[in-house]
Structures are given as C-alpha cells and as structure tokens.
C-alpha cells in the first residue's frame, strides 16, 4: 500500500444481489471513512484480486460453489504477501462451534451473519481500515527511519573517506613540495655547470685543454637536462594513458645486453662487481619503452649501491613469463617505504647533498610501462643496507627473426645540401655551424613561408623543419613541398620538441620522412643525413 493509496476492502460473494447490496452499503461510508471497495464473484476471482492489491479486510461469503469460503481463505493465507489480511466470514446461517473453529483455523478474524446490521458492519470494517492505516503509517515511519539510518551511515562513510583523502592529499602535497624542491636542485646543477663552462669559453686566456673540457661539460650537462625533461614527459604520458606502444617481437636478453653495453661505455659500471646472466627470452613489446624499463632499473641499482658493491642482472623464462631481475647489495629499502617505492614522487631519504641525484620518478615510470605491456613489477628488500631486488615479469612470446633496417642512402655527388627551417635564432645558428663543420652546405630560413620559397628556389637534398614555425607551421611546410613536383623528392626531417606517438603520426601523415625530438642527438641526425662515417 503506497503513501497515496486508500485502504481497500474486498467483498466476495457468488450471489449478485447480495454482492451488490453489501458493496453499496459499504460505498455509502467510503469517502467519510477513506477507503475503497472492490468485489469478486468467486474464490478464483478473489485470488486474482489479492494478487493485484493489498486489502485492509476481506468480507468473504462462506457458501460459494466450486471453491467455498474456507478454501478461499486458506489459499489467500498461503501466500506470504497476503497471509496477514484479516478475513470476516459472512454467512446466511448461524454457524455452529465446529464451523467457527474451522473458520478460525483458516485465518478468520470474525463472523457476520446476514441480514447484515449496517452499524455493526461499519464498526467492524472501520476497525480494520483504521488498523491498516496505522500499519501503513508505521511502515512509512520505519522506512523513513531506515533511510535516515542509511543516510547517516553513508554520510559517516563519506566523512571518513574525505578525512582519509585529505590526509592522503596532504601527504601527496608534502611529497610534491619535496619533489619540486628536488627538481629545482636538479635543474640548477647542470645549468650552473653549463653557465660556468660557457663563461670559460668566452675568456681570452682559456687554453685549448680548458676549452675542450668546457665543451665536454656543456655536452654532458645538456644530455642530463634532456634526460630530466624526458623522464617528466614520459611519466606524464604514462599516467594519462597517452603512450602508444609500437610492438614487435624482440629478445629481452639482447635488449638488456645493449643497455649494459651503454652503461659500460660511459664508465658507469667500472666501480662495481657486475654479473649478468642473459638467456634468450622473447616478448611482444615496444623496444624503446622496454629499454627505458631496463635502463631505469640498472641505473637505480648503480645509484644506490656504494662503489665495490655487487649488482646481478638476469633475464630468463619462467613458464609463460619472461623475467628480468636486478639485484644489488646497496642501501636497501626501509620496510615503511617498500610498499610505496613505485609511487610517484616517492624516493628514499632526501639528504641536503643529494649525492644520489635523480627525481625519484624512474620506478613509477617503470611500473606504468610494465603495466602497459601486460606485465607486473615487484620489489624486495630485507631493510636498510640489505640491498634490494627488483623483478619484472612480462608475457612470453614466440621467437622471431628481426630484419635489419636499411641504412639511409648516401646522395650521389657527396654530402647533401641541407635546408634548415627553424625560428629560434640561437638554435638555428648552432645547428648550421655544427652541420657546416661536418662539410654540409646549409641554407637557413626563419619561418615557414620563407622556407617553402627557399626550397622551391634552391631544391636542397634534405630539409630539417621545426614544427612550431611562424607564418605556417612545419606540417603545412611539408604538405606544400609534397604538392609541388619540383620539391616532392626533398627528404623531410621534422625537428621538434613534441615527442608523443600522436605527434609522430601527424608528422608522417603531413609528408615527413623522419621525426627527431629536440635536443637532437648528433649521431642520430648525421645517420639520417646518410653520414655514417661522421656519425660513428
């Protein structure tokens, strides 16, 4: 019975005249007593009505053909929903004690005898109508209390959640503040070194040896700044789901071995007892991202292991998984830090000297790149000074033979003529000087429209085009050069600070042959120009 329903009374009688008389009598008081009257001509009809409605009381004729009143009452009270409906039996004869007992056993609330006395009928019906209304009111109050209790519980849970979120936000803000302070330190160090080395190059009394050392410092610190920017961008892309993997089948052992060769070539491994066990293990993954994973783990081991310590690196198969393990004897990980070691901005104890360096985002990037490959990463450590072990698990793939990529063809007649379209004056000047020192003829343009005109006039072999140009951007430069028959064959290389997979796709769709991200690695650029001797 809903909040807006009137209580209902069901009158059941097979005799049409009796049924009409009883329902008419009840309907006289319906508005005053606030109820509604329904009728049924048989026991089966009464059961159908009970299925459709809830009733405050049922007036049920005892003597009906087919299903009599007793059988009807029993059937009504067998249903859980209608089991508590009070039934008043109506009969034309005086029931003996046996009939009364039989009626009460089937759930009768009372008896009435015909002819019905109107005042008695009204009084009895009114009792049950009032009771139904009180029960409905109690039910609504109980529902309201239940809803109120549920609302209070939900509010309490929400408050507890908000308190925990506030505490978590405060912890994150604290970690971010520490990270920003650390980032400022990490940026100022190489910038200070570059500034000092640049000043030294400008001094009249600087000798050749000092100048050469200053140039090496500038090169090394510029690479360090580039790595910091790349780490920040890669982590941002990974967290926002913007990294698209370029998958192919590759040998994880060969990839890790190549990473180790790079660390050895830069002198990073000389002070350590390093052991590598690399068994062939094939995965379906992005070579660049998997190299980032391996390099970050190896770099982490080198960074936190004192000189003379041991580092063990292993690649192998374990059932359906390829497993990369990096184990070191370094400073270890405290028990309270271990569960958070892959979280963003989390790093071990931060000292004022920052002897380890780094931003503390490498392991977070590792976790996200591993998850993108459908793998898992875990860390173990017995505690401070107990060393640590990092394990990467990736889905195993079938071995495949990789075809060697063809080297760019050397232009006929020697080194190609290069058109450099770059709006940054300092960057354009330094790139032109560098290429000229390697024997290239370099043409320069500071904007897109001028660059297109210069290309049409001089027909260079290669055009190095910045994307963010004034006038028309690098994409439009490429499209215009590809439309003209005279300039269609120029080799187009995009030089840009935009390095997302979406940016690479747009570059290739615009008509570029290659996409290089700033700051451009000299060896990579020379290789693209076909100068393999200079690149080596």
From TrEMBL:
The keyword Transferase applies. It is a multi-pass membrane protein. InterPro entries: CheY-like_superfamily, HATPase_C_sf, HATPase_dom, His_kinase_dom, HisK_dim/P_dom, HisK_dim/P_sf, Sig_transdc_His_kin-like_C, Sig_transdc_resp-reg_receiver. It catalyses: ATP + protein L-histidine = ADP + protein N-phospho-L-histidine. Coiled coil: none annotated. The keyword Isomerase does not apply. GO terms for cellular component: plasma membrane. Keywords: Kinase, Phosphoprotein, Transferase. This is histidine kinase. It comes from the Bacteria. It holds the Pfam family HATPase_c. Residues 8-129, 417-533 form the Response regulatory domain. Its EC number is 2.7.13.3. It is an enzyme of class 2 (transferase). It comes from Massilia forsythiae. It is found in: Cell inner membrane. Residues 182-398 form the Histidine kinase domain. The modification 4-aspartylphosphate is found at residues 61, 466. One of its GO terms (molecular function) is phosphorelay sensor kinase activity.
